């Protein structure tokens, strides 16, 4: 039986860390400050993908509906990257190169989505988050997330 995004075991933060569960509004941006955004996120539900892009960029994402994401500044500083033949686009700051978020449409993720790179959030300690793992390298999205990394070859 495969696990869904909500089936991944979650544990609370350690050492009196902030409670990241439930939807809260967070702000974030790139390293140089040119790109700023805010997003309504539930950080008890973040994931890593083993596809070549996510692995090489070290992205950990929180997936939300596009309406829960608001670009505050820096639209003119964004550059997009997407593989040919896919509707998914990753946005980077032209100045510092930081990947802040991506947008796309995957039926397995409920259609249109935005994925916020949690490493770009202000005042969030990612070491206190429980992370689920996707098997994007093998296009195994239907399996959902699981609590341990997927091997590169299944």
From TrEMBL:
A GO molecular-function annotation: metal ion binding
Q: Where is this region: Disordered?
A: 1-20
Question: Start and end of every CENP-V/GFA domain?
Answer: 26-135
List the keywords (alphabetical). Metal-binding, Zinc
Q: Keyword Zinc: yes or no?
A: yes
Q: Does the keyword Metal-binding apply?
A: yes
In terms of InterPro entries, this protein maps to: CENP-V-like, CENP-V/GFA, Mss4-like_sf
One Pfam short name: GFA
Instruction: Tell me its family.
Output: Belongs to the Gfa family.
- Provide the protein name: GFA family protein
The organism's taxonomy opens as: Bacteria, Pseudomonadati, Myxococcota, Myxococcia, Myxococcales
């Amino acid at each position: 039986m495969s696990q869904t995004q909500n089936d991944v075991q979650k544990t609370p933060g350690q050492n009196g860390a902030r409670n990241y569960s439930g939807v809260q509004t967070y702000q974030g941006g790139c390293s140089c400050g040119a790109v700023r955004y805010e997003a309504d996120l539930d950080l008890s539900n973040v994931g890593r993908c083993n596809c070549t892009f996510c692995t090489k960029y070290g992205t950990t994402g929180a997936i939300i509906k596009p309406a829960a994401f608001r670009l505050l500044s820096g639209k003119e500083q964004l550059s997009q990257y997407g593989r040919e033949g896919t509707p998914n686009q990753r946005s980077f700051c032209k100045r510092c190169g930081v990947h802040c978020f991506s947008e796309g449409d995957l039926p397995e993720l409920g259609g249109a989505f935005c994925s916020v790179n949690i490493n770009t959030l202000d005042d969030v300690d990612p070491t206190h988050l429980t992370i689920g793992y996707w098997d994007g390298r093998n296009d195994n999205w239907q399996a959902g997330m699981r609590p341990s990394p997927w091997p590169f070859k299944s």
